[in-house]
Specification:
Blueprint (H helix, E strand, L loop, with lengths): L2 H5 E6 L3 H11 L9 E7 L2 E6 L4 E9 L2 E8 L3 H10 L18
Antiparallel strand pairs: 1-5, 2-3, 3-4, 4-5
Length: 105
C-alpha cells in the first residue's frame, strides 16, 4: 500500500454506526502500550483518539447504501486501523439474479 492508501482506509460493515464507534472505543485503548490510543473527542458519527507522540487517529461511521461505511484516518496507526476493521462484521453484497425467461420457439 502506498502512503495515501494507508492514511485513509475504508471498510463496509453490517453493524450500525453507533456499535462500530463503541467497539473502536474498546479496541484502541486496549492495544499494546506502544500502539494504544485513547479517546480525545467524539461526536455524532466519529471518535478521535490520541496515541504515542500525540498521533491522531479518527474513526467515523455512517450509513450508506444499506451498509455502514467505516473510515479510519491516521498517519502512523494504519496497521491498527486495519486490525480494527478485521474485527467488524463485514457487509457482503449479495446480488439476486432475475428469473430465467424461457425462449419462445
Amino acid at each position: 500500500m502506498n502512503q495515501s492508501q494507508r492514511t485513509l482506509q475504508e471498510y463496509h460493515s453490517i453493524l450500525p454506526p453507533a456499535e462500530v464507534l463503541a467497539q473502536a472505543k474498546k479496541f484502541f485503548p486496549s492495544r499494546n502500550s506502544l500502539y494504544a490510543a485513547f479517546v480525545e473527542k467524539e461526536g455524532a458519527g466519529y471518535v478521535t483518539f490520541r496515541g504515542q507522540g500525540g498521533e491522531e487517529l479518527v474513526i467515523a461511521a455512517m450509513e450508506r447504501d444499506g451498509a455502514t461505511l467505516v473510515t479510519g484516518s491516521t498517519y502512523l496507526f494504519d496497521m491498527q486501523v486495519a486490525r480494527f476493521f478485521s474485527t467488524l462484521a463485514p457487509f457482503v453484497l449479495e446480488e439476486e439474479l432475475l428469473p430465467e425467461i424461457p425462449a419462445h420457439t
